[in-house]
Amino acid sequence: MKSIEFKYIYSFIFLIVFIVAGKNSFAQNATDLRFNEILVHNETNSVDDFGNRSSWIEIFNSAYNPINIGGCYLTDDLENPTKYWIPTGNPATVIPTRGYMVFRAGDSPSQGIHHLNFEIKDAKILALFDASGRTLIDKIEIVQPQKPDVSYGKKSPDSPDWGFFSEPTPGSNNNPHKEELAGENFAKMDPMGIGMAIIAMIVVFSALTILYLIYNTTGRYFVRKASVTRKKKDADKEVIHEDVEIISGELNAAIAMTLYLYQMDVHDYENTVLTIQKVSRNYSPWNSKIYNLRKMPK
Amino acid sequence: MGTFFEFILENIQQFLSFTAFANLTIGHIIMIAIGLIFIYLAIAKDFEPMLLIPIGFGILVGNIAFAPGFQIGVYEEGSVLNYLYFGVVKGLYPPLIFLGIGAMTDFSALISNPRLILIGASAQFGIFGAYCIALALGFSPTEAGAIGIIGGADGPTAIFLSSKLAPELMGAIAISAYSYMALVPVIQPPIMRLLTSPKERVIRMKPPRSVSKKEKVIFAIAGMLLTTFIVPSGLPLLGMLFFGNLLKESGVTKRLADTAKGPMIDVVTILLGLTVGASTQATTFLTFKSVGIFMLGAFSFIIATTCGVLFVKFLNLFLKEGNKINPLIGNSGVSAVPDSARVSQVVGLEYDKTNHLLMHAMAPNVAGVIGSAVAAGIILSFLM
Q: Is-contact B273 B55, C-beta < 8 A?
């Protein structure tokens, strides 16, 4: 009964582990790519390598590892998900950890892999599909009409909220001025450090209390087990003791005398024996002086 | 002929300008004196020689006043010392030290009396007490976090955390942490005596029970999983600590355990000590901040010891007679292994010649190692 219960527990643990591991391994792939900002009407904003001011789309890698976007598809038509295939085998398609990549719109794919084969000026939707061309990774619905030189983007890279930005920022955080280091945030919210001290000590105590509870439980289990084993051993000893009692005193005396005589005999005999251990010499011509010296000519 | 002599003279002058005598400053002299004191304390007074000799000599190495631009100093990119210092800057050495510590530590005392783990937690108040004081003194939160960890009394943890949070203060923090660790026999006993009554000092504790191999193996695996699930940022330290312990306790990887606790930890200790010492170049080290760090280090040790002892007294309020804990082991919650446990033993013997506290004190001592690594993980996750 117990083994069956354990079987269920193990199966459950394995299931959880697989779900969590599966989720994480999936998270390390293109599924972590997100649309971050778009500029539909580019009149005075950034120019591409060819000096053109075109609309652009910015994609953010929300993972904590680099992701290769090569092989994925960008489209403005959900009915045609494989509209623009991002070429593979090119290091320029790797988006660094928490980094950005900008794609220029316009029918100009010959200008490089970051140039799409479609325009987005009248697009109502933009979508990113994975390498299979079937799984949607992310999409945005574009509210038309868009103002010139005003981009539409996420308020912060991990935020679900979108807004308009009069200062478009292709290839970087949409709101660079507002991002503060965690430490600075702490200093603002908790200038004395009391909050940090309390929270941290609670965590330290919780962690070590959990350890205490677990080791206490396992310790009790092992102590109980050891006491059961000890009792069993004691019981066995008693059985042996009972057996011994059956043997008569004469017999015991005879055994003792025999052992005594035998030991004495062995002792005397041993004293007369010289043990010579053979000292092995691992001979090799390489360590012989004779072979390393030139012989005198006769 | 005259031109030749001029040429030779010019070269000699250039050579002289490159010597340390020409570049020597009062700061270098002070630092060399500190290095010599460290070496003296290690050799003559036997204060943590394994650490103070490499660090002390490293201070001498780091304060040879060379002319910059020749790829000599620890901060000069491309220099040999800089390559060795890489392991400090990137936090590479501390986890390797922890691997060795894990492989040489016997957690039996802790496993047999798990409630002593909590003393290891209480001593971490020193870290956060020093953090609050550092903030009040005007240090930035990241600097305060890095300074506070000195109270954990764990050199590798202090180096690991300061390399992440305040690399510019790492030299001062490491020197401070190791100095106070060496001074544990001086700092702790007066606090322990002050906070305990004569009756409390002679409390006898039950001898620890024997712990089976299975329990030790479970301890290593469960300890790693639990602590790192709660504080994943402590993984480099805690993961290596418990891994080293598993190598030891599994019984089937004796060679690996021997390497981890022997040659490997020795090599890393040499590199860590020497490069940390060398990082105390007078030009970067002798600042008011360093003085502040030294003061805060002392405070954090005092707070940690006080909290450890007081926490045991607090626990005793709830424990039955016969199960009480001797408060003299409270100081061992700081993770200066095994010095603080040795202090408990020495002070305990002063009051009862037959009351040996060493084995009991080892439990909070090693729990302190775990606690300070957890605390470092929390600080990292909060401030980075």
A: yes
